[in-house]
């Protein structure tokens, strides 16, 4: 037995956190920084680490990362420093 209302179920969604060199984004003519902010779950980069001012991190839905953003960065030769996947739980209406 669970404490959820009937008609709700939990689903797991994959989130990808990506670390990039900020200079590659800021000096790109194709405005990739704005595009990444638009797709980002936070509508902006994740708050910067005080020790690492040269990089920037974003969180995306895995489907956006795999279907659009990964290829976009590759086409523009933007290197990905780190890619980390996590699962998050989400309550949704069950039909």
Write up this protein.
By secondary structure, this protein is of the alpha+beta class. Helices cover 28% and strands 37% of the residues. It has 3 helices and 3 strands; from the N terminus they run βααβαβ. The protein has helices at residues 22-26, 32-39, 62-75; strands at residues 8-21, 55-61, 80-93. The protein has a 3-stranded antiparallel β-sheet. The chain is globular, with a radius of gyration of 16 Å. The two termini are 19 Å apart. The relative contact order is 0.34. Residues 91-95 have low confidence and may be disordered.
Brief descriptors of the model:
three-stranded antiparallel β-sheet, 95 residues, 3 helices
């Amino acid at each position: 037995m669970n404490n959820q209302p009937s008609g709700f179920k939990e689903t797991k969604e994959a989130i990808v956190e990506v670390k990039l060199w900020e200079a590659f984004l800021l000096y790109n003519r194709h405005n990739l920084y704005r595009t990444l902010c638009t797709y980002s779950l936070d509508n902006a980069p994740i708050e910067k680490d005080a020790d690492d001012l040269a990089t920037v991190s974003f969180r995306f839905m895995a489907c956006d990362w795999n279907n659009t953003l990964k290829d976009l960065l590759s086409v523009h030769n933007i290197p990905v420093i780190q890619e980390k996947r996590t699962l998050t739980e989400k309550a949704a209406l069950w039909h």
